[in-house]
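Render this sequence as a predicted structure.
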Amino acid sequence: MAATLSHPGVYIQEIPGGSRTITGVATAVAAFVGRALRGPVDVPVAISSYAEFERTFGGLWRDSGLGYAVRDFYLNGGNQAVIVRLARDATSAQLDLNGALTLDAVGPGGWGNGLHAEVTHASGEEATTVADQQGVDADELFHLTVREGPAENPVLVETYPNVTLVDGPRRVDTVLAASRLVRVGTAPALPGTGRPDAGGYDVDTADPAATGTDGTHLTAAEYTDGGALEGTKQGIYALRDAELFTLLCLPPSVPDQALDDTVWADALDFCVRQRAFLLVDPPPTETADTVRAWVGARGLTANGRNGALYFPRVRRPDPLRAGAVREFAPCGAVAGVMARTDAARGVWKAPAGVEAALAGVTGPALALTDGENGSLNPYAVNCLRTFRATGTLVWGARTLRGADVLADEYRYVPVRRLALFLEETLVRATQWVVFEPNDEPLWAQMRASIGGFLQDLFRQGAFQGRTPREAYFVKCDSETTTQYDIDRGVLNVLVGFAAVKPAEFVVIGIQQRTAAAAT
């Protein structure tokens, strides 16, 4: 803004630099969708540790692969995750406070049957003072304590003093909106009158309508329902409300079984639109001879750039079965390896090789030979293999479009994930451009901002080439944006990059030379 020149003298004016710094988005935010013991349903919940998953969703559960996958993710170097809990035919426990108030457990599940509520009445001069402050009668105040688990060893205890059923600043339904245990039920309606009788209240487990249940195993209808759930943001589509996710894992509803095959195509289509990457787990019944045809038979090749398949399953001890070794889907462990590799080397480094060891596993469910690995790799099957000195490793880095016969430009996982990283970063970092004057000053700012971001990646080794000119380019001028585009309100920016491709096959030539030739 120009200074008002009102008198002779020196005026100071701060001038904007004209360049906006671009910061890359996170590359390994893993979304997990599946069945859990507790927690909100069809709501994306961001977590940053496995302990947080245990507090919110109940931890490991024999009847679901979700907890095991999340645990493997953090064991292998994961950091940020988003959890969506799905439930089928599950019900929520309910506490009836003598007909004056009903409390529903937060989220369905049998865990709610251990809830206990304690009501005490406020009285005396202190109650009168608090009532006057709230604008209610003293005999309408009560203290509410909600507990999960036995009194001698509770899981969680929450206390809410001086709440009411009538309108006021401490009306119980607004206060309990932040509770991790209960919410106010639909009956009786609030605001009400009076207050619940003093005493303790437990879930009436003899009443099926008041008892919480865990429900049954999930089907395709809970995940996608053929895409019909997208409009209601349920199933995997609840992730549309997530701030960001870049990896999608769908651990099976039953650890020893497979996800419904029809879910994978819908999930892959969703990942394409969300600029995310899907980790596909083939059924446990697949063998080295049959898994090659599994991808094509499920229609996963068309959108295969945004997904990768890892085979076979992994074996690891199960803490819920006294350490007995069981087989589990590898998606969580592989997602953790991707997060660890991104943090150490960058998203452009293939999450495979001797640095991609799987922690917490005893080995793959099927020991693959070099010959079997060689027959699977051309069909874009990424193998998990055990080597004597290095343990169990991720030994493949191809997308579902990585079959040799397809010759796709995004055949490699790091190349595709780098492209998705650039797309998501630039979409978020250039929102300020909307409604700016579409002319050369704006074009210059775009070139400077995006060019600076790509130059930083070039210095880190993200692109091929000896010079920036060989590694990337940013074009935003009158050639990309013509007068016709300007008249339509369109700004075109062209960004190109030369991705670093992994050294998938290393050939070392050895030649024998005679002593005479050596001299």
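Summary. The first helix runs from residue 50 to 57. The chain has a mean pLDDT of 93.
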